[in-house]
Amino acid sequence: MAAIPPAHGSDPAAPVVYDLEAARLRKARATSAAPDSTDITEAGRELALAHDITVGTADVRQERVEALKQQILDGSYSPDPAAIARRILEDEA
């Protein structure tokens, strides 16, 4: 087994002295110099905007969904296949 070389310039038996007060001062200076801050990314802003938009329209969509469910249940729902195809093609363009 190889021996571990001694550290240069240090006495392995020397006691470690830690200046607690100086460490507290350094920490206080570091935390007071840089206040907390946040930054919202562009994607976060877009998500918040989408959320705000959908919150206002949720009731209208729910009413439409309920009306369509009722039409399906009573057999009066008859979608127009050509209109559906047109909308799909418009959304892809």
Describe the SSE topology.
Layout: H1 20-33, H2 42-74, H3 81-92
Written overview of the protein:
The protein has 3 helices and no strands. The chain is mostly helical. It has a domain of 50 residues. It starts with 19 loop residues before the first helix and ends with a helix.
In short:
The chain has a domain at 43-92. It contains three helices and no strands.
Features:
93 residues, single chain, mainly alpha, 3 helices
Quickly count the helices.
3
Weakly predicted, low-confidence segments? none
Distance between the termini: 72 Å
Shape call = elongated
Radius of gyration: 34 Å
Range of strand content? under 5%
Query: Biggest β-sheet, characterized?
Result: none
Series of secondary-structure elements, N-terminal to C-terminal: HHH
**Mean model confidence by pLDDT:** 80
Structural class: mainly alpha
Q: Would you report the number of β strands?
A: 0
Provide the helix percentage.
55-70%
